[in-house]
Amino acid sequence: MLGNFTYHNPTKLIFGEDSMNALAEELKSYGPTVQLVYGGGSIKRNGIYDQVIAALEAAGKTVVEDGGVMPNPTVEKLNEGIAIARENNVDLILAVGGGSCIDYAKGVAVSVNLPADRDPWQTYWVDFEEPTCPVVPVGAVLTMVGTGSEMNAGSVITSHEAKMKVGHVFASADVFPKFAVLNPTFTYTLPQYQMVAGIFDIMNHITEQYFSGTDDNTSDCLAEGLMRNLVAASRAAVKNPEDYEARSNIMWCATWALNTLIAMGKSTDWEVHMLGQAIGAHTDATHGMTLSAVALPYYRLIMPYGLAKFARFATAVWGVDPDGKTEEQVAAEGLDAMEAWMREIGCVMKASELGVTEDMLEGIADSTLIMQGGYHALTRDEVIKVLHQSL
Amino acid sequence: MLGNFTYHNPTKLIFGEDSMNALAEELKSYGPTVQLVYGGGSIKRNGIYDQVIAALEAAGKTVVEDGGVMPNPTVEKLNEGIAIARENNVDLILAVGGGSCIDYAKGVAVSVNLPADRDPWQTYWVDFEEPTCPVVPVGAVLTMVGTGSEMNAGSVITSHEAKMKVGHVFASADVFPKFAVLNPTFTYTLPQYQMVAGIFDIMNHITEQYFSGTDDNTSDCLAEGLMRNLVAASRAAVKNPEDYEARSNIMWCATWALNTLIAMGKSTDWEVHMLGQAIGAHTDATHGMTLSAVALPYYRLIMPYGLAKFARFATAVWGVDPDGKTEEQVAAEGLDAMEAWMREIGCVMKASELGVTEDMLEGIADSTLIMQGGYHALTRDEVIKVLHQSL
């Protein structure tokens, strides 16, 4: 049943091997000062930084550097970025990197014009307010896929003090990037571990939205199409990371997995992300691998509460033949097929590989938000059980 | 293989049973004078007109009436609408109806500010220019689904003088409706014939984009999801037109079938639309039924040129079991399954039912544009053959 919703996604996506050619022209729509956001410097080694600088120069921009964004951007770094933006009165924040850089750029963008006495972390990631001040435009050059941050209004920030990694999905259309440049070849040099983490992040974005509801929703049919495509493309990409068809399909699929479309008209779950983000806050492990470590224990626990959908997942996504089997058997075979695929592409299957130990479980459980939109809201005991089974 | 492309679809979609509640607020973003575009007056009988007027009044707008838009809007009507817009210096064109009304509204919107010596038909539907003048904003309240016009920049106009029905898909983001209100219950009162025509129009929008290319494209996977959903929902809707789940899924599916998404990164065909539009220009028959009358002869003719895709269509959309069959058999069974579905829901299967006679075929063939993006570009003889088989 499609309920009431508003879909509005104004991001302009420029996609393909030649997409960087359009960057200079795109930049001309914005004012003269650009805050250039990036991570640890890999873009300097692989030449992407030079291409971006060339486009900024061609567009006549003044560049304010803001590098060193970490994989899980912190409150401290966020406050640094806000100070840079305020000092330089920037007109555009251009993030060059993956979801961390773009999430961080959005976090800065909504905070620059907050009154000086308002704390950004408290305002947006504790109280979940919408921006009432002007939002600085954000643009993106994507070098790593998975988070979908290039076409959504989500921003995940980590507070080590609070031991919380919190995602705020803003409702305001102003928070979406104005444009994003997606060049699949930019993802070729990413280490395999990061590529696989991104792929599982994409898959989990889809399943978080898919495993809810009981009707034949358009969103679910689109989700199944994306999952089939992702499974095929990921198998090709792990064999040959420079398979353009595979990498381009993964990149495009990632965008649509989390740009609000497949959540329209239905409730969504997001419990795997809550568990994974809690692990991330305690270990600083790679996001996608925190999800892969907990996903199967979680889905096997909730399967009985959404049995028909898990059976549909098995046949529609994994091609399980339901003939002569009970719904339970079909559903279980679907999760077994997902497990086999996860092992095949190289997902981390155990939280212990990420540094999680038995004595950390209570603390991680304390950091885990309990969601209500899926087939079953976890009890505290069940959170511990899932975490325990993931060790 | 995903080539280079730009995706930018800024239309805001307000969806659901309660979506009209948002109209007055939405209207406040635009200037005081609104050109109200609608068709033959059914919206006055079913109460939608009164709801729209109430929202316009609540937003304090001056309303300029522009009713009487015909199912295939003509050049003469277009010129009338442009004159109305110019005389009243309108700030927004609000189309209340189906694709014809919205297409017409876009046609007026791109033409209002053309220099007086430029002919709109020649500029946009013969020379296919992009607007260089300011485009008047368009909003929509959708009462009939199928064309996807609520979230794309297409506009189909008919010239009886030229015996041509021509669709211009504008590239400019300015031509997309700024907003569209989609209330599935508004489609309940539509006669069954029109509902079914809309459903086949949706299906054909998808197949026109699906039957091209040879790779496992994200777009094709999304298309398969949309088709499976449409088939299921249409079967429910013909049994009970007031099945909200079915009508809402059909409405949402229609939007995504033709809002540019599933065409990204691949070539598309559109030959069925060229054949159907030629029939439309000669008979004024309902658009969707002109497509259903020619689709099967056309697809059976081109099937050998895209055999693998037709076989994939059979298994992925229609659940044809490929075991022990040749690719040709699987592909043919897919088209047979589509034919059975078309008959089940009540599509027109013969152009003769639309008033086409043997002696009209050469004239219709003269009006048929030949497309190059599908698996096979038709020869003149093949156009005649397809038309003949559709009789």
Descriptive notes:
2 copies of one chain form a homodimer. Chain A has 391 residues and is an alpha/beta fold. Chain A has 2 domains: 12-186, Rossmann fold (3-Layer(aba) Sandwich), CATH 3.40.50.1970; 193-390, Up-down Bundle (Dehydroquinate synthase-like, alpha domain), CATH 1.20.1090. Chain A has 15 helices and 9 strands. A 6-stranded parallel sheet of chain A has the order 2-9-6-5-3-4, sandwiched between helices. Chain A has a two-stranded antiparallel ribbon with strand order 7-8. The radius of gyration of chain A is 20 Å and the shape is globular. Chain A starts with a strand and ends with a helix. The model of chain A has no long low-confidence stretch (mean pLDDT 96). At the A-B interface, strand 1, strand 2, helix 8 and helix 9 of A face strand 1, strand 2, helix 8 and helix 9 of B.
Radius of gyration of chain A: 20 Å
- CATH architecture tag of the largest domain in chain A: Up-down Bundle
Number of strands of chain A: 9
The residue-averaged pLDDT of chain A reads 96
